[in-house]
Amino acid sequence: MTGHENSLAAGVDGAALKALIKDWARELGFAAAGVAGIDLGEAETGLADWLAAGFHGEMDYMARHGLKRARPAELVPGTLSVISLRMPYVAQAALSAADAVLADGERAYISRYAMGRDYHKVLRARLQQLAERITAQIGPFGHRVFVDSAPVLEVELARRAGLGWRGKHTLTLTREAGSLFFLGELYTDLALPPDEVVTEHCGDCQRCIEVCPTQAIVAPYKLDARRCISYLTIELKGAIPEEFRPLIGNRIYGCDDCQLVCPWNRFARSSDQPDFAVRNGLDTASLVELFAWSEDEFNARMAGSAIYRIGYERWLRNLAVGLGNAPRTPEILAALQARREHDSPLVREHVAWALAQHGHGTFA
Prior knowledge:
Among the domains are: 7-89 and 116-188, no CATH class; 286-364, no CATH class.
């Protein structure tokens, strides 16, 4: 954050500026924006307990920054307010097809958020544009943009900014739009008036907890990331634990089960952002088709996608698990046999497991 003095000290009306910021946010494609204060003390205990339990798994960056995640002014000195924003990401057609893809063991299920362009780039650019509009209105001010890229308690900030409540699956939920949206934050040195916190509306519902294939939601509002399919297929760098492989099914990048079953997502808003439109037929692609991609093809097709982050080796690892859980067909067996001697020990291990699932060879 730059070292400017608080811009509101010059007589700018904070409430009026906040109203303008919300208007500009909508013009930039955000569905909603709100302002949160920086006292997140209530969230510190939960964060400390979660880290102490090891629920973050290999995501060392979460522990490395410690409680700075719950202390915006320590993370970014000079922060006085946080502008939190949400943007829907799913096309209604892709959402409607989700259950059918999950039910077809020969198809590859990819989390609906990863179908198009990398959301980090899209939201970061829009947040920077928002900062530029604020600068044009009041002059230079201190700010820093975050999009799932640093130790930020984005769900807690969204809650305090009035954008929704923390659902039992730990994601932000709203009555108006469910949970199928991205969050982004603008840390600022502006003393903006905070919005009112939204009340919770999960009630007695336990659907997200009951549907989780790996029982990663170990209690309401508490997720053991080490069991979560999104963690296993995206964040985990090594071998996927054998106990979870059969439970992953055909989910090769992320998992949406807890969101698909949530009653509030009946009200999910369809995205009108071209950047989030489905690319490369990822909403209906088969496991065999994707497993056949060469590394060059993966790099070319996934350039600009969030999926590119995991790299080709983990892409094949995940697909091998999906193929091991798929119906036994000549095409699936041939695809696995073709990768049996792959250069990567990680890929070979998961291919061997998949073939053993189909009664071809042993896995130990």
